[in-house]
Design goal:
Blueprint (H helix, E strand, L loop, with lengths): L1 E4 L9 H8 L5 H9 L3 E3 L2 E2 L11 E4 L25 E4 L3 E6 L16 H11 L14 E2 L8 E7 L2 H12 L3 E10 L6 E11 L4 E5 L7 E13 L2 E8 L6 H8 L13 H5 L8 E8 L15 E3 L4 H6 L6
Parallel strand pairs: 8-14
Antiparallel strand pairs: 1-4, 2-3, 2-4, 5-6, 6-8, 7-8, 9-13, 9-14, 10-11, 10-12, 12-13, 14-15
């Protein structure tokens, strides 16, 4: 028999979701069976998979030891002695970091352990803010993600409560995210809104743009504003209304202004003139605009955070001021 004392970061979630993380070898079918047979109990009583755990609950599992024999590779965060992070803001609930272009947020098919989340977890672990031995299922997690070669603000939640709230707020579009990019040419009109549909082409690994809805496509909306132009390049600010994969890259290319350095949606012929091989795109501004209750994070309403040192802006538009 194994027991779990439910702590704050595990509370509020359904029992089945908790068990998926705490006992990953236990299948959903066996979990339902063991609940029926009273081999999974909460506070000594029969329970249901949909039961929402509360802080202080005692979860008792009368199941075979084999379900707990999970052999795991050493956690990535333990391998990082000096976390590589540029922290914009940090408190007891969240962490805002400025991700460098070239760093992946999560492990990808290249098998890198030097990911953004690993560096964040290493920072929290080594600073004594997170002790995984005291948690049953929760680990600090990212609330948003950006492409490997895109830099900018990424939000990490330090608590399960903060993670739940931020996921809800992002889904409800109560966060304003603005990007800076350098594009080829000068957008016409200089400012506007792009509304269409994006569909992922699995074979090409890119998004296709459609004026009308097609099977598998999702609505996509971007507001853009030209901030400065010089020669054949323009500095453009984009605000995401929706958050589709590669949205800004596909949208700016669709109006004839692909991002500098973007070989997937632009042309290498144009990019070679500037010797750029990755898209000039940065998530530089984040604002919390809550329109409904935010519980423990209500103090963030109205707060805005900006990255002011962006390498490609300094390189191509050194006189531009934020």
């Amino acid at each position: 028999m194994k027991e779990f004392q439910i702590a704050k970061n595990d509370s509020g979630q359904r029992l089945n979701k908790f068990l998926e993380k705490a006992v990953p070898r236990l299948s959903g079918g066996m979990m339902h069976k063991y609940c029926r047979l009273k081999r999974i109990k909460v506070n000594g009583a029969r329970t249901e998979p949909a039961y929402r755990l509360a802080e202080g609950d005692l979860l008792q599992l009368y199941i075979n030891d084999e379900y707990f024999e999970v052999v795991r590779e050493e956690e990535a965060y333990r391998r990082i002695e000096q976390p590589r992070l540029t922290i914009l803001f940090e408190d007891e609930n969240i962490l805002l970091v400025d991700k460098a272009p070239g760093m992946v947020v999560h492990a990808d098919d290249r098998g890198s352990v030097d990911t953004l989340i690993a560096n964040i977890q290493a920072h929290l672990y080594r600073s004594g803010q997170w002790d995984p031995t005291r948690e049953n299922s929760f680990a600090p997690a990212l609330c948003n993600r950006i492409d490997r070669n895109t830099g900018g603000i990424v939000i990490a939640a330090k608590t399960a409560e903060a993670l739940r709230i931020l996921n809800e707020k992002i889904k409800a579009r109560e966060l304003t995210k603005k990007y800076l990019c350098i594009v080829h040419g000068r957008p016409e009109p200089a400012s506007g809104r792009i509304d269409n549909f994006l569909r992922k082409d699995e074979k090409l690994g890119r998004m296709t743009v459609h004026a009308t809805r097609v099977l598998g496509a999702k609505t996509a909306s971007t507001i853009y504003r030209t901030l400065a132009s010089r020669s054949t390049l323009s500095l453009v600010e984009c605000e995401l209304i929706t958050g589709r994969t590669h949205q800004i890259r596909a949208h700016m290319a669709s109006i004839g202004n692909p991002l500098l350095g973007d070989g997937k949606y632009g042309t290498n012929e144009l990019n070679r003139r500037y010797n750029e091989h990755a898209q000039m795109l940065y998530s530089y501004k984040l604002r919390f605009d809550f329109t409904s209750g935010a519980g423990a994070l209500s103090y963030l309403d109205g707060c805005e955070f900006t990255v002011r040192e962006i390498p490609f802006v300094k390189k191509y538009f050194p006189k531009h001021q934020f």
